[in-house]
Every structure is written in structure tokens, then in C-alpha cells.
Amino acid sequence: MKGNYDKAFENVIRLRIMSILMVNERYDFNSFKEILDVTDGNLASHLRNLENAAYITVEKTFSGRKPLTNYLATKAGKKAFQAHLDFLENLINANKT
Amino acid sequence: MRKPEQELAEIKSMMERSTRFLSLSGLAGILAGIYAFAGAGIAWFWIYFPLTEYGAGSEVITHADLQTNLLVLAIIVLLLAIGTAYLLSQQKSKKNSDKFWTPASKRFLLALFIPVLAGGLFSFALIHESSYQLIAPATLIFYGLGLINASHFTLGEIRNLGIGQLILGLAGAFFPEFGLVCWALGFGVLHVIYGSMMYYKYDR
Fold first, then answer.
1. What residue stretches are annotated with the Winged helix DNA-binding domain (chain A) (predicted)?
2. Domain range for residue B145?
3. Contact state of B8 with A85 under an 8 Å Cβ cutoff
4. I need a surface site. Which of A19, A26, A77, B147 has the fewest CB within 10 A?
């Protein structure tokens, strides 16, 4: 079967984070917190998890004086997510027939 | 593992919510159309009233008084429309418990207002050069381009609204005697039509 079920995206928060980073060049910590409606600690641990898998990278900048932490999907991350998507699609098609 | 259909729906919804400003209020579109239509009516009355010929009075705009009055009228209509859109969209985002200021809403506003701001400045240049007959088409064209540009970051209907404004603007540029009529159709009637469509589809 084509595609690959990726354990990194088994958790729904991580799946959502990666979905967002597929269509946004960069996304910041606070915006993640608002759209996902999760706590700081929970979000940070999921982000770290994806970072450890080398699926996302962190970019620390300043907006005025406030520190701003942006996240970007890496090439490997995008590829892994695409494979995960392919797997899900093939699974649906396989179940149909 | 969750169902794959559910999983894909989750992915799609997150992609949409993080890139598109979905709190745009249909009701605000309807009201903006009504303000614009009323404004166009007043302008028509001032410019053309005794004559019913559409374009026969266009030299009259050189009167400084009328020029100031029209400018003030235009600014009032614009501020009312923007104010209404802001308040009602904010209300809608509160109702859906979405944040109003998100990366998506900022991108939407930037995409819309770069062409619109350029159009506004261009219109001042037209006043400066006394090319009054091109002001109505120019505002329609720039607004249309702004909407098409911004449609990537909000509800899809906005794209067709933009194309409509663009066509009316180009028509008005070739037939300046119908400039004000095109303006009333674009900013007035099209806003009401698309506003009601969006209201019925998303807001109820």
C-alpha cells in the first residue's frame, strides 16, 4: 500500500499543528494556542516532539520588544505529512471497493 | 486510530481555519450596499438633478463647492461601510468563539487594502488632473482587484463579487456617461446581492 502511517501524527494536536504548517509558511506560538485551544505546556510538548522528529524548525525573532516564536515545517516534515495523507486516502479508497 | 475520513476532515478544517478569515459578515455587505446606493442617489441629485441625461452635467463638478460636498459624502459612505463591516465581523467572530485578529485576518486585510489604498490615492490624482469621469470606474476597478486578491484568504464568494466590480468598472471607463450608474450597481446592488447570499449561506 502506498503512503505511510506516521506515528508522529497519531496525536490529533500534532496532526493539527502539521496541517497548519503545510499551508502557512510560518505560524507563531500564540496563534497556535488560540486556534488549537490548548494550554502552553501541552502545546510546547507537542511542538518539541515534532521538532525532535525534525519535522518542524523554530525561528525566534522579536516583534518590537516582545519575543516571537515562529514555527516552520521542514522539507522532511512536509514529505512525511504528504505520505501520511496518501496513506489515509488509499485506506479510504481501499475500504470503498 | 481514528477513522481516516474523520482524520482528513480534521486536516482540511485546520488548513481552512488557519488561512482564511471566515468571520466576514454578510449583513455588513448588505448594509454597505445600502449606504453606497443612498450615497450615489444623493450624488446623482447634486450633479445631474434638473437634467436626467446621465453624463450631461459632468463639467459641473468643477465647482469647488460641489467637489467638496461630493468628497465629504464619499468619505462618510466609506467610513460607515468600513465601521459596519468591522463591528459586525467582530460580533460574528465572537459568536463563533473565533479570534478576530489572527494571521489569516491580517493577511486578508493586507491583500484587500493594498489595491484599495492605491485606488484611493489614484482617485485623488484624478481629481487633481480634473479627470472626474474616471473616478467612479477607477474606484470600482481597484476595489474589484482588491477583492479578487483577498478572496484567497476568506469566503470564496468574494472572488465573484470582485470580478463583478471589475467588469462594471471597465464598462464605466469606456462609457463614462454611465460612470455613476455603474458605481451604484457595483457598490450598491452587487454588495446587497452578495451580502444576502453570504448571510443566508453562513450567518443564519
1. 13-92
2. 25-44+54-203
3. yes
4. A26
